[in-house]
Every structure is written in structure tokens, then in C-alpha cells.
Amino acid sequence: MTSKARKPDFCKPGEEAIVRSRARLPEVAEAIIASCADAACYTHVDYEPIPFRQAVVDTIERLRELLFPGYFSPHKIDPVTLRYSTGKTAAEVFDLLSEQICHSIRHDCFRYDRPCEECEPRGHELALRLLEEIPAIRRVLATDVRALYDGDPAAKSHDEIIFSYPGIFAIAVYRVAHRLYAMDVPLLPRIMSEHAHSITGIDIHPGAEIGERFAIDHGTGVVIGETARIGKNVRIYQGVTLGALSLPRDAGESFRGKKRHPTIEDDVIIYSGATILGGETVIGARSVIGGNVWITESVPPDTLVVMETPRLIYKSKAEAPSAGTGKEKAE
Questions:
Q1: Looking at residue 305, which CATH number applies to its domain?
Q2: Which end of the chain is more exposed for a tag (fewer CB within 10 A), N or C?
Q3: Residue 55 CB partners (closer than 8 Å, separation 6+)
Q4: 280 domain-assigned
Q5: How many CB atoms lie within 10 A of CB 143?
Q6: Domain shared by 114 and 50, yes or no
Q7: Using CA atoms, how far apart are residues 184 and 77, in angstroms rounded to an integer?
Q8: In a domain, 33, yes or no
Q9: How large is the angle between the packed helices 53-67 and 166-182, nearest 10 degrees?
Q10: Do residues 294 and 310 lie in contact, with contact meaning Cβ atoms separated by under 8 Å?
């Protein structure tokens, strides 16, 4: 029976080495603290709190319980428990959301030296207003779920879409964040939309205006800019960009709030990889935009836009030149 191999002594750091390393930590911490005084760097070391990102994420998860009752609740909901469960969740969302709205408003007041907006009662008011809009948001989300199901033969049920499709998660978060954006709540809408972006790869700015029956199929790499306008019954696929044209370096202030992203009218389909840019660009109703096209000018209604079919070259491996010689030439 062989004995276990003896570990070398250097695998057991001595107490003296550990003490030396830890003794340097106060010096390191002091250097970090000193860097906080550098005005060119960003800190928030203040007595006034700012929004807590994890609390915003928790709010999204609780809101999903109200948007799709019974799907994301931690316990079973039946007709007997619906009233109790909904009331409890609504109260928890109200507490979480009103506090984070209050922190957001207060942060802007102090950082930008704005007049007092009575942030605490305003936080309560806006949180309650969002909760009052939940039935309307639910009705629009139902059309989005049906649009995804109607256009995707791979979908076996509406339940499958609600549980697992990244598109419906991103759209649900957008529908809520857009309401808060319209109420002029700072910070929170972007925190919400960027959380959805990090989870799904779908980047929808909360300022975009999107009609009902909106479907994002697959979704990875979709980008929809702040001033984009999307009509009803629009379907887009992965890799689609509704973006802005290139702007000058100092354009932040002069272009802020102006229309920079395209308008997509009703009943349009945009296939994967398409890029549509510019605030004056309008894709007319019922048009179909093919994959991988680049559009910076308006397209009339009822138009098909596709790239010219590329010419493929087929050769047997025996005929093909060796890869990487730099001498290949297509005939």
C-alpha cells in the first residue's frame, strides 16, 4: 500500500509571510481613500443614499409576479390565494420601488443642485401610479406573447414563451421601464433595461416607443435606441440594430432629446443582422427588411429590401488551393 505523496513545504505558507502581506492592507486602503479626492474620478461618498442596483433587480422579479401571476411566484397561486398573494406582492413592490424612486430623485437634487421635489412623497406617488398601470401593461404584454407564439412554429405553448423566451423577458422589463421613463424617474429605467440587456443580450432603451404585438425572435444582439418609434405588429430577429448615425464627439448636449433613431411603421418584419440608422429614416408599413442590409434612407410602405444574392463558388477539396497561401483567386 503506497503512502500519499508528501506536499512540498512551499504549499504551506508560513505565518510570517501572511502577516507581512496583511500588514500592507492599511496602506493600500489609504491609497484608495486618497484617490476618492480626485475630482476626475467618480465616487458617491455622501450621507444621501443612491439607488441600490440589487434592490432594483429584486423589484423586477417581484413585478414579474404581478405581470404574469402564477408563473414566477415562489408558491402556488389558486383562486383562493390570489387575492392574498397579489396584495402581498403589490405591497412589497410598493415598498421596494418607492424607496428606490426616492433615492433616485434625491440623488439628482443634490448632485445637480435642483430645487427640492419632496422626494419621499413623490416616490410613493410614482410607485403607486406604476402599480395602477399594471393591468394595462399586462394587456399589452399579452399581445406580445401571442405575437411571438403566432410567428414561431417552434413554440409549443404560450407558457413556454412566458417562462423561457428572452424576447418576452426583455419586452416585459421594457414595458415597465418605459412607464417610469415617461414619469421622469431618473436612473431606475436604465438600471432596469441594462439588467435585461445583461441577461438576454437585448438592449432596448426605455425611451423607445413600441406598439403592441411586438415580437423579438431569438434576440441576441438586438439594439433599439432611445428615440426609436416602432408601430404595431412588428417582428424583428437577432442582431437587428435600430440606431443613430455617427455623431460628432461633442454631440452629447446638442443632440440630447432630439430624434436620432429610426421609425418603424406597423406590420414590418426585420430579419437578422439588419442595421437601420438615423432619426429621419422611416420604414414604411408592411415592408420586409432582409438580413444583413444597411439602411440610412426611408423605405416606402409595402417594400421588400434584400441584398443581391451573392455568387458562391464550389470546388472539390482536391481542386482548391491550400488555405493560407495568399494566392487564391476566385474566377
A1: 2.160.10.10
A2: N
A3: 96, 99, 100
A4: yes
A5: 16
A6: yes
A7: 34
A8: no
A9: 110
A10: no
Cell of 6: 508528501
**161-168 — which CB contacts under 8 Å span 24+ positions?**
162/68, 162/71, 163/71, 166/199, 166/200, 166/201, 166/202, 166/216, 166/218, 166/219, 166/220, 167/200, 167/202, 167/215, 167/216, 167/217, 167/218, 167/219, 168/141, 168/144
pTM of structure: 0.85
* Residue that the C-alpha cell 454631440 belongs to: 251
CA distance 109 to 105: 6
The angle formed by the CA atoms of residues 194, 170 and 120, to the nearest 5 degrees, is: 55
Question: 88: helix, coil or strand?
Answer: helix
Would you call 248 exposed, middle or buried from its count of C-beta atoms within 10 A (0-12, 13-18, 19+)? exposed
Amino acid code (one letter) for 129: R
Do 149 and 239 lie in one domain? The reply is no
Helices (H) and strands (E) in the chain, counts: 10, 14
